[in-house]
Design goal:
By secondary structure, the chain is α/β, with parallel strands linked by helices. It contains six helices and 14 strands. β11 and β12 form a beta hairpin. The longest helix is centred in the middle third of the chain and has 17 residues. The chain is globular, with a radius of gyration of 21 Å.
Length: 293
Amino acid sequence: MGYDNQHPDVLPPCEKAGGYKGMKKLSDTCKDLDYIFATHDQYRDYYLDADTFDINQAIVDEIGDVEMEATWEGGKQAYLCAAFAPYYVRRNFEMLEDNGIELRGSYLDVFSVIELDECFHEEHRMSRKECMNKRIECFNYVSSKGILTSSEECCDWAIPHMNLVHHAPHALYPNIDTGKSRGIPVPLLNLVYHECIIIPWTLSKGGWGIPVPQDGFLYALLNGGVGYLSIEADKEEIDRNKIVCQLSDKVAMCEMVSHEFLDETCNKQKTVFSDGTFVEVDFDNDQYKIGNL
């Protein structure tokens, strides 16, 4: 059915797309090419047409209602109580393993971006802290299999249990996809967690989480991150990404030890990493400098 459908019952893989046999061929080919084969997965959105859907496993709010919505492709859904999430993670990953499909990465969607849930169901009451611990249990199970873990955005409780995130967007107005910054972005998260987690950046002006008219390529360099390539990236974008990759290779495991604004416009900025590498960017003139102290 495709993504955002029938979670958590996404297996077996679509027969028209190749089924288990085709998915194994894909994972084997990725392994031969030394590509990271990863799944995009989901254990919170709980679709009513999932084979094992059970209303008694859905989150119940404080007045006894099961919240429903129908935002995504899969149609009507509730929310799976996190008390049951580790079971479904184990079940699905074991099914893939039993069919010879070797994962090197997995993205557990929304866990690190959506608020921690409470559940008031009399048989599985759950506090926010208990929800956090169940999500951590899911991450740690995946990690115990030697599989890289990721989720949607950076959140301090989740960072120790993830290798990378989908994005770490700046707050934009009128919306996250296009707009100007709501304030002056300061890389506080990178100053604390840079060497702990990989953060990708869109390599274009504007776009997801990048303030218009600033360039995501410069943010990737300033933060010592990695780049997001477009599906059909042209030579210019690939060449820019190579620059980002070269810097990331050097500083990925280094602390970001300082950040400063170099002028009153705050469009000229400098970061320094613990190995002495510094990056200066100029958002007004789309220029950058990389050097060593």
